[in-house]
Amino acid sequence: MFFELIVNKFVKDNSNVKDDTVRNSYGVLGGIIGIVVNIILFIIKLSVGVIVSSIAIMADAFNNLSDAASSLITILGFKLSNKPADREHPFGHGRIEYLSALIVAFMVMLVGLQFIKSSFERIVNPSPVAFELVSFILLIVSIFFKIWLSKFNKFIGEKINSSALKAASTDALGDVFTTTCVAISFLASKFTSFPIDGYIGMFVALFIVYAGFNLVKDTINPLLGEAPDPELVESIERMVLSYDNILGSHDLIVHNYGPGKCMASIHAEIPGNINVVDIHEVIDKAEREISKALKIYLVIHIDPICIIEGEVKEAYDEILSIIEKYDYIESIHDFRVVGEGDIKNLIFDVVIEPSKKLSITDTELINIISEGVKKYHPSYNCVITIDKHYT
């Protein structure tokens, strides 16, 4: 494939996409290609727009110029996000890539808003568009340029899992659509005096604003703290459970500090009667090996469980029978019985199914479960924590 030839030419060790240096090289390559292609298209379309006096074509030209600026910001974003961690930023500067994409999105919207104004003025005060065959052919050629650029950005974006380059691919595909509309309106101007140029210019400008809005939404989500990649979640949970004496896991939380820069914590359930030193060795090994394999920083908290027999097992089974009627309760964990004599505390966490909407408050749910326990054991007190998924 031609894309792979380009990558092999300019990116050393290109198969090692998890390496920060290699990933940075991919990003810079995608940005440089984007700048070159968009500058060429800007020059072509601006020349055509000025020659034939078409606001729609000039709007499309400046859209390409903003795309070139976007590619430049993408390069800067990759460079800055690859800076090593320092005292002020112990987890590195990876989120700069998201910020750079956000700046690009606002630039795209600004260009669109400017051409909404210009297109409206053209509708109010129309002027003739001079159709020329050579100019029309150049517009058609520019469409194929954008199709190629969209596919190239998609190839690079999927290769290194870059939201910035995937967004650039979508943006380029949108440009294919807008330029096609511009070309159709340009051709139509040959057969009608209706000011279609201004209307198409308005349509293109609105499309640019809409594309910018979607880019803002896509890039702001990881900054706000979106749910982690389901594949990463599944990999962490599966790998943790693969180690000896780890019986279960819960409370997985993943913090995203930029592409390929994640910190995660998880609770691992272990037998309550195991030697502390022995399980400490297992946990240390798991943290080290999983962190290396998944390119994350993993911290594992251990939760001893003693639900084997006797009073604890009996109390645990009673709790399960109480909560099974509530479909919004997914599970319980960290269950233990604390105290001496008749008065004892049942301490546990209740996990709420994330897809269910509760019609009651957390306090009301705690009271319902506590009252159910009181029917079995009036002397038992429940200490319940309502737990939610963070994945």
UniProtKB/TrEMBL annotation:
Subcellular location, in the record's words?
Membrane
Give residue ranges for domain Cation efflux protein transmembrane. 32-224
Tell me yes or no: is Disulfide bond among this UniProt entry's keywords: no
- What terms describe the molecular function in GO for this protein? monoatomic cation transmembrane transporter activity
Membrane protein topology class: Multi-pass membrane protein
Give the UniProt keywords, A-Z: Membrane, Transmembrane, Transmembrane helix, Transport
**Single GO cellular component annotation?**
membrane
Is the Transport keyword given for this protein?
Answer: yes
Q: Which residues form the Cation efflux protein cytoplasmic domain?
A: 228-304
Q: Indicate the secretion signal residues.
A: none
Protein name as catalogued: Cation diffusion facilitator family transporter
